[in-house]
Design goal:
Elements (H helix, E strand, L loop, with lengths): L25 E2 L2 H13 L4 E5 L4 E5 L1 E4 L4 E4 L4 H9 L3 E7 L2 E7 L3 E5 L2 E6 L5 E5 L6 E2 L6 E8 L5 E11 L3 E5 L12 E9 L3 E17 L2 E11 L3 H22 L5
Antiparallel strand pairs: 1-10, 2-3, 2-6, 4-5, 5-9, 6-7, 7-10, 8-9, 11-13, 12-13, 12-15, 13-14, 14-17, 15-16, 16-17
């Protein structure tokens, strides 16, 4: 397969990050796009490749970022590879220098590259480059609210297990309803061994840093809120959060279109 046999470049259409508010983070200059993709290749940056409305996910790396095409490594699961190969759209997420990189690719073509199986794809015309502080935050479903179990140490040496309601979540952190005032919690505090169960996706076990405490006005109610960030959350756990966000957004869109879930 020659590079000029690839399908034409596609325009990005993010299933999560939609709207004009993200335009300022979008790279559209062809040279800038190619440079960023080469950096992903040179640093062997792991990519999470989602397709089929987020139901399939493959971990990959860029084997080649050429001026007019990309070559991606196949995943370890051949059944997943088969589903990825027939998908029309592939939503790719990676991280470079603590900056989230996202782009959408069109159809893949199975090829052999340097003696091993690989996928060939056209270059994206746009790449979203999102700083850590600008990660997309999903407001959690009212009907099925998430809970974050937080073991908070008490002054007397005891431990208070607080099941915090999660107001929003991103791969960078969570916003929660803060514990009662008598429970000590302060900005900058590190809370290890926190746990969040993502329905039908998996469990997040990690450490949270309390970034800020304040009042949140949401759905007509006033409540104490704590903004928290994950500390050194592994890539596998970030992938679970990405899958959960895609799943919830897909279900919301289905309900809005009358398909229901």
């Amino acid at each position: 397969m020659k590079p000029n046999d690839t399908p034409p470049p596609v325009t990005i259409a993010l299933p999560i990050l939609e709207g004009s508010e993200y335009d300022k983070y979008m790279l559209r200059n062809p040279q800038e796009v190619r440079t960023l993709l080469r950096q992903l290749q040179e640093r062997v940056t792991q990519l999470s490749v989602f397709c089929n409305e987020g139901q399939d996910m493959m971990l990959s790396v860029l084997l080649e970022a050429a001026p007019d095409h990309l070559i991606l490594d196949v995943g370890p699961d051949e059944e997943v590879n088969r589903r990825v190969a027939v998908a029309e759209r592939h939503y790719c997420i990676g991280q470079l220098d603590r900056v989230r990189i996202q782009f959408l690719l069109g159809p893949f073509t199975r090829i052999e590259f340097a003696g091993r199986p690989a996928f060939l794809a056209a270059l994206p015309r746009e790449v979203l480059r999102l700083q850590r502080r600008e990660y997309y935050r999903l407001s959690t479903p009212i009907a099925r609210p998430l809970k974050c179990r937080m073991p908070i140490p008490l002054p007397d040496g005891g431990m208070f297990i607080f099941d915090a309601t999660v107001l929003d979540i991103s791969v960078g952190g969570v916003g929660i309803v803060a514990p009662p005032e008598e429970i000590p919690l302060a900005a900058g505090q590190i809370v290890p061994d926190c746990r969040i169960e993502l329905p039908e996706v998996g469990i997040i076990d990690g450490t949270l840093r309390i970034c800020q405490l304040g009042v949140s006005f949401q759905r007509g109610n006033t409540r104490q809120r704590a903004g928290c960030e994950f500390v050194n959350l592994p890539g596998s756990q970030q992938t679970l959060i990405q899958r959960y966000i895609i799943k919830v957004e897909r279900e919301r869109k289905a309900r809005e279109s009358g398909l229901g879930f």
